Amino acid sequence: MARSSKYTTILATKICERLMMPDQVTVYRWLNQSEAFRKQYTRAREVQADTLADEILDIADDSARDIQMDAQGNERTQHEAINRSKLRVDARKWLAGQLAPKKYGDRIQQNISGVDDGPIEQKVTIVDEAQVKATVAHLEDNY
User: Fold this and answer.
1) What is the pLDDT of residues 29-71, one digit of tens each?
2) Residues in contact with 65: Cβ distance below 8 Å, sequence separation at least 6, in sequence order
3) Does pLDDT of 108 surpass 50?
4) Could you report how far apart the first and last alpha carbons of the chain are, in Å?
5) From CA 47, how far away is CA 69, in angstroms rounded?
6) What are residue 77's DSSP bridge partners?
7) What are phi and psi of 81, to 5 degrees?
8) Can you tell me whether residue 130 is helix, strand or coil?
9) What are phi and psi of 118, to 5 degrees?
10) Strand locations in the chain, DSSP E?
């Protein structure tokens, strides 16, 4: 059975109290002290990243303010509105990437291989300590 959704001042106050974030120091202290809170917080941040991704699509798809008519009836591209939308998208992309880097972050892949994409070869060279000292002394004399 669904809960009643009738507005009351008491219910509205309770909702607003739950929405208010405690001081940042308090949140960090709770993160350090409580595994349960850490899991809840992590999940909330994942949901926040997903919400930002959804907002990105909404912003990108909304072209309502991109073109407006001037006083003579000519269409004018509203570069300020387009740039603002780009800024809004970029800010959300960045934040989503920070909150959920595996899902929304930039993917950087490195492949390390040897010559002609072959296996990496390891070589061990045994160096005579006296020879190293002589080489270092020679370099110091020449500089």
Assistant:
1) 989 999 999 999 899 999 999 999 999 999 999 999 999 999 9
2) 78, 81
3) yes
4) 86
5) 39
6) 67
7) -65, -40
8) helix
9) -85, -175
10) 67-69, 75-77
Which pair of structure tokens corresponds to residue 14? 């309770």
Tokens of 47: 């949901």
* Mean per-residue pLDDT, 94-119: 88
Three-state DSSP at 84 gives helix
Mean pLDDT computed over 70-92: 95
118: which DSSP letter? -
In the 8-state DSSP scheme, what is residue 100?
Answer: S
Nearest 5°: CA angle at 80, between 66 and 92? 85
Using a cut of 0.70, tell me whether the model's pTM lies above it. Answer: no
- Check: CB of residue 56 under 8 Å from CB of residue 92: yes
Question: How many CB atoms are closer than 10 A to CB 104?
Answer: 19
The first and second tokens of residue 10, run together, are: 């008491």
